[in-house]
Amino acid sequence: MSKKRKPKFGQNFLVDDNARHAIAEALGDVSERTVIEIGPGHGAITSLLAGRAKRLVAVELDRGLAAELSFRFREQPGVEIVVGDVLEADLATFVPQGETVDVIGNLPYYITSDILLKLFAAGRDGLLGRAVLMMQRELADRVSAGPGVREYGLLSATAQMNASVDNLFTLPPEAFHPPPEVYSTVLRLQFAPRFQELGVDAAGFDGFLKQVFAQKRKTLQNNLRAAGFAAEQVAKAWPEGVPVQARAEELGLQTMAEMYRRLAGS
């Protein structure tokens, strides 16, 4: 009796047919688009996009799975299987001159934040249009959370400075094989960086957000002082109507940008 092959990188492969169709359809019309698929696995979504996208670039770290996909789609025009780590890949090499590309994928939990940051950077460079991404539910809740709720934090603010975020649906463990111990949520991101709109520079504001969310349980004022701002600076930059004991999680991005501009000018 043969042993079942264990996923080499701890993958949980999507096996729910309705779910894979819903994920592929969430990307919209890609008939004239290039799509990058992150971690295609056995090709549950690849097989749907191969006939829809103008060009499909599937980036797979597992050499065995990549070989399987290369053989399976060897006669499918417009499909490229790339063996490698998406975190090390130069996404610009997959983007046609003067165009943007779309992204789809089931992101491993332990590197989800790193992949998101890479995608946000590519979005700022004008390389990406839309992404449909599946990730652990708790992390998706943080990405999509709005100000004033417990889940809102640095990842939420960073995501929403770079894209509009839609929480589409959540899948139970049995939608995968082997079933993970967590639920998975699918998000759709429309890349639309807000830095110019809010009058802030990207690198500086990224650093500011890290400072104000450094200790979530501390007040915004205490985090700013810990970052080296004098009490007088903070008082002068404090937006009207914001309580003095407010925490960063209570403020929207527009208010944060206003404070950053005032502090930068002080």
Largest sheet: 7 strands, mixed
Low-confidence stretches: 1-8
H/E element string?
EHEHEHEEHEHHEEEHHHHH
Which overall shape is indicated by the principal axes computed on the Cα atoms? elongated
β-strand amount: 15-25%
Specify the CATH architecture of the largest domain.
3-Layer(aba) Sandwich
Number of domains: 2
Give the distance, in angstroms, between the N- and C-terminal Cα atoms.
73 Å
What is the share of helical residues?
25-40%
CA gyration radius, whole angstroms: 21 Å
SS-based class: alpha/beta
List the strand order in the largest sheet.
4-3-2-5-6-9-7
Count of helical regions: 11
CATH fold node name of the largest domain = Rossmann fold
Mean pLDDT: 95
Number of strands: 9
Please write the CATH class name of the largest domain: Alpha Beta
What does this structure look like?
Helix content is 36%, strand content 20%. It is an alpha/beta fold. It folds into 2 domains: 13-193, Vaccinia Virus protein VP39 (Rossmann fold), CATH 3.40.50; 201-264, rRNA adenine dimethylase, C-terminal domain (Helicase, Ruva Protein, domain 3, Orthogonal Bundle). Helix 4 (112-124) runs parallel beside helix 6 (154-162) and helix 10 crosses helix 11.
Question: What's a quick, concise take on this entry?
Answer:
The chain is of the alpha/beta class and 266 residues long.
Key terms for this structure?
elongated; disordered N terminus; 9 strands; alpha/beta; 7-stranded mixed beta sheet; two-stranded antiparallel sheet; Helicase, Ruva Protein, domain 3
Describe the secondary structure blueprint for this structure.
Blueprint: E1 13-14, H1 17-26, E2 34-38, H2 46-49, E3 55-60, H3 63-72, E4 79-83, E5 101-106, H4 112-124, E6 128-136, H5 137-144, H6 154-162, E7 163-171, E8 176-177, E9 184-191, H7 195-198, H8 202-212, H9 220-226, H10 231-237, H11 253-264
Parallel strand pairs: 2-3, 2-5, 3-4, 5-6
Antiparallel strand pairs: 1-8, 6-9, 7-9
Helix pairs in contact: 4-6, 10-11
